[in-house]
Amino acid sequence: MSEPIDQLTAWLIPLAPLASAVIIALFGKLFGEGSHRLTVTGLLIAFFCAARVLVMKETSDGTGVVLRGPEWMSVGALQIFADIRIDTMTAIMLCMVTFVSTLVAIYASGYMHGQPGYPRFFAALSLFVFSMCMLVLSNNFLMLFVFWEAVGLCSYLLIGFWFSKPSAAAAAKKAFVVNRIGDFGFMMGIFLLLMTFGTLDYDSVFKMAGDVAEQHPQTITIICLLLFVGAMGKSAQAPLHVWLPDAMEGPTPVSALIHAATMVTAGVYMVARCTPLFVHAPTAQLVVAGVGAVTALLAAFMGMTQYDLKRVLAYSTVSQLGLMFLGLGSAVVSHDLATAAVTASMFHLFTHAFFKALLFLGAGSVMHAMGDVIDMRRFSGLRRLMPKTHITFLCGSLALAGFPLLSGFWSKDEVLAAVMAGTHEGTHQGYFKLLAAAGLITSLLTAFYTFRAYFMTFWGEERIPEEAGHHAHESPASMTTPLMILAIPALLIGGLLGPTGFFGNFLGHTVGLGHEGEHHLHWDVMAISAGVALAGIFGAWLFYVQSPGLAKAGRTALAPLYHLSLNQLYLDQLFTWIIVKPLWVLGWIGLMIERFVIDALLDFIAWVPNLVGKALRPLQNGLVQSYALVMALGLAAILAAMMLR
Amino acid sequence: MTFLLPILIFLPAAAAVLLMLLRSPDGSVARWGALLGSLATLGVSLIIASQFAELPKPESTSDTVVQPKFEVRHDWLTFKRTLPNGTLASDVKLEFYFGMDGTSLLMAILTALLTVSAVLISWQTIKDRATEYYACLLILETGLLGAFTSFDLLLFYVFFEFTLIPLFLLVGIWGGPDRRYAAGKFFLYTLCGSLVTLIGLVSLGTWVINNLPGLETPFSIPDLSAALVQKPIPTNIQVMLFLLLSAGFVIKVPLFPFHSWLPLAHTEAPTAGSVLLAGVLLKLGTYGFLRICLPLLPSACISPGVPIIATLSVVGIIFGALAALVQNDIKKLVAYSSVSHLGFCMLGLFALNQEGISGSILQMINHGLSTGALFLVIGMVYDRYHTRKMDEIGGLASHLKLISICMVFTCFSSMGLPGLNGFVGEVLCLIGMFKAQTSQHVFPWYAVLGATGVILGAWYLMTMMQKAFFGPLRLPDTHGEEIHDLQPREALLLIPILALCLWIGVAPQTLLDTIDPDVKKIVRLYDRVRGENQPAVTSVDVE
Q1: Shortest CB distance from B473 goes to which of A164, A176, A587?
Q2: What pLDDT is stored for residue A645 in this prediction?
Q3: Could you say which of B326, B355, B458 has the minimum Cβ distance to residue A588?
Q4: Of B302, B274, B294, B287, which Cα lies nearest the Cα of B342?
Q5: Torsion angle, CA of A295/A296/A299/A305, rounded to 10 degrees?
Q6: Averaged pLDDT score across all residues of chain B
């Protein structure tokens, strides 16, 4: 039997990156261009600890363990300890996070070479990994929220890394504020949870969920919906997804790590973690599935026409996150299939992290060579110039498109199978037919836009923008090595862990619903999704390699749709006009009320004594006769009053 | 221990007198003297803090509502009391009654710390009448410390009013171009409010003298509050007293719509004035509610206190945030953000439960630190470029690296990022209000609407950072003056505040433990009053 989890191993996972963050932040000048060494060291320690934890006793036998941390806050009903919790779900997340982040850090040492603020970048990156690990490790909702915001902070700092660029500064602000909207819902959900359950600890809440659901079914639904609002912000679900495409202003390693592989999946993780709550709120689950499906479809639609390579990938991330939520929501179908549905989503989250990080890093490699040009209309035919980037990008694209037997194929297949189950089981078959259709169309579009981007970048005649100068070349080894390492899990990990049932059995311990049981391969779904993926790839080849005229013809034929997609459904403009501007106007109205009502009233009150003075001034006119007259009249009045009594 | 308390309060005033006597023409004596005086005061407050936890717990009964952990009491005036029916009862004593409980201690440390920063930030900017300026700062400190450590109603009022004078002078003499109007408005507005409060205090005293013949010290807050537990003031009189007493406090806080003096006073005040005004002076209002209204008038605080104050707080939170959003002057933006943040503070206070009141006290400290730091940084920028307009400066982060880092840090602290101080206070205030409302089976409107301030808070601060600190560099003409990044003096005055922000955010329990006994006693009073309220109605019906 493997050894039990000890405090040191567990705590080193978050604390090693924190230590490197603090050291770089304080002494960054000393390290300069060597700062990445500290980060990589910290992350490697974290990765080894995470990998160790994965095979240690409490994770491998599925019991999980909670290690008591310091007390953070204890007031009245609120008692919060910074505990860390390790079970199979956290162990998987931790391994994925630390593995991808280590590779990204190595890649970034090449990518960020020569940039001003090099230490700042690595300090923020280490801080992010710390926060992300703590987010995953937290054992209660408040600590989850604390680190939920902390990863948001790191995201803000890194999107705005090139802060003197106006678009980067604006994107950073947008990301933070939009996330805050989601966090508002999350916070309310946590408050309601605290009031309903009297505690915020996962175990206690999940244990009580059934009883509470019987007494207050409405409350559970509201709690779940509010928590999901938080997830919508962080995981960029429509309509709160608008920040993610803009977040591509950040350095590409950041896009790969934070805005593709890890942070944006925090919402999925949270909903998966809360499965024991969500199963008691079927309405909330239906909403989760619906929002996921709509997001998946819309984002895929918007991704079809983007010319910015990173934006294509950003929309693809939004779309894939939507698929994960679709899977999570499909847990509503039947209690027996719930674990399978949640596991499928987590599995997709897991595989997606590898191939999407790979794709982003590949895009970064292209950007690096092209002198920071990322518009796909400005370059093409790079497959001979950048062979390593080309091959690894192709691996990522195949995995994302769901090419048979690659990682994305297996995980997407499981998600789709969970959704399809709803079409012939349970009480919402009609609804799930729509969702399944959305899922399949999304798969088709995904394959299409992924290969559109691939063909536009790497095929056709070789064109290089002038910004790249004459020395456009394959990226250095520090960048291509992580690409090649990431290509392996992108290709294989799905096939190794998925169909064997390994992932499902391992994770099933944690979901909180008991075991999944026999792992089935869904041959019918696999056949359909394989067909869809191949059709999408073929479509892209037809439009962008075989006869490029077709793409142009399509653009003109479907001009309204094309513009709708290119301009991202005009959502930014819509939000500006229905939210941002009205609030500004409201602010001005408030100031006007302050000036012309409140202050005017005050001025009036201040003017009253003045007025009284003015009114009374004539009395003191200095004429002795009038004083005498008033005296006499007064005396007469008093005498009259006395006599009449 | 007790001997340190009068030293703490009057040390700054003594230093001020010394400064005036030892004046030097260039003001260097004043500067250094003020620095030494304020540092010594801070030292004394820290000595008290270091021993505070070990002090023996004072004896208390189940009736105790307010109780200092240690105290200094001296008789001041004694007069005979004749009851309305003509009989002679025990003498009435007025006292010098200073003391400290956890809340006073925290407020005193905040005051002492911010005064040191206020002195240092003025180091180079105040050349004109420097001696008088620093004397004003120190006298203001004595006023504030006195108010936070008074446990006698009249004594509190004296200090509460007294703080007006030095601040009036600070704004009126060393302020910006529109300083006279701003100072006048500030002074008259707050004075009018305080006079109504005085009427309230006198009425309260009269009622107590007439109806509690056994109470020798009717103005001592601990004695009075304990006596009132047994014999509460009739509810209708409580309501009247609450409205009268609140008048001064709501203006000081300032609660919407009594806030309009604040943005003006802030924009015109010199940096040090803004720091002390926002950091400490506003807390006199919330502190007044906490110290006087909550323990003495529980029924009136429950109703109509909660609905009135909570509604105004929520309106203030949203109004302040939206008004901050459309400002161009950074200092004005921060002034409006104070209206918003103090709304959280009042919301928590009138949750009237453990979470809310603790959060509120914490929020008083947090707002003092974060907003104090914001004003300090803005002051540093203003000293360099002589403008605070966001359309005139931009991209400072590429020019003033360290100052910008401090600004980003402070903004995050102010917008309540977890891990920094603001979060703990805000979240506790909101949880308190949420709990207060849901436990009465009401939809938690106040908490939900108040929480939108969290979104808006991020929005206006981020917009400000985006415009002034990020983006391409845009600087006004400095006429050849050389611009330096953060100076050692500035680092010295700013870093301790920022360190405290981080410390409170990471380990808030130390502070929460300090105020825990105070809060628990008040909460116990409210549990009792709420428990009695229900049967009380039926018994009246029976009669």
Answers
A1: A164
A2: 76
A3: B326
A4: B287
A5: -150
A6: 90
Residue A209: CB atoms within 10 Å: 23
Helices B421-438 and A141-159 pack at an angle, to 10 degrees, of 140
* pLDDT at residue number A516: 57
B472 vs A590: CB contact, 8 Å cut-off? Answer: no
d(C-alpha A184, C-alpha A557), whole Å: 43
Cβ atoms of A459 and A381 within 8 Å: the answer is: yes
Give the distance from residue B28's alpha carbon to the nearest chain A alpha carbon, in angstroms.
35
- Residue A75's alpha-carbon distances to B49, B126, B416, in angstroms, are 21, 44, 18
- Asked if A149 lies within 8 A of B418 by C-beta distance, the reply is yes
Contact B260 A598 (CB under 8 A): yes
Per-residue tokens: A577: 């006009």
DSSP-derived pairing of the beta strands A65-67 and A71-75: unpaired
pLDDT at B543: 32
**Closest-CA residue of chain B to A164:** B471
SS (H, E, C) B4-48: HHHHHHHHHHHHHHHHHHCCCCCCHHHHHHHHHHHHHHHHHHHHH
CA of B86: how far to CAs of A590, B34, B80, B92, in Å? 56, 54, 12, 16
Geometric angle at alpha carbon A12, from A8 and A18, rounded to 5°: 145
- DSSP 8-state class, residue A253: H
Torsion over CA: A519, A520, A521, A522 (sign): negative
Q: Enter the DSSP assignment of A241.
A: G
Contact criterion met (CB < 8 Å) for B359 and A75: yes
Joined tokens for residue A350: 């897991």
Residue B53: CB atoms within 10 Å: 11
B428 part of contact set with chain A, CB < 8 Å: yes
* Least confident interval from A217-226, B6-15, B18-27, B301-310: B18-27
DSSP A79: E
Confirm or reject contact between B458 and chain A (CB < 8 A). yes
ipTM of the complex model? 0.92
Kindly give the parts of chain A with pLDDT less than 50.
1
In this structure, how many other beta carbons lie within 10 angstroms of the beta carbon of residue A634? 10
Identify the CA nearest to B221 among candidates B290, B306, B143.
Answer: B290
| Nearest alpha carbon to residue A351 among A277, A302, A414, A429 | A414
- The arithmetic mean of pLDDT across residues B89-101, rounded, is 88
User: In this complex, is the C-beta atom of B451 within 8 Å of any C-beta atom belonging to chain A?
Assistant: yes
> Which chain B residue has the Cα nearest residue A595?
B260
Residue bearing tokens 């189940």? B62
Query: Where would I find the H helices in B415-444?
Result: 421-438
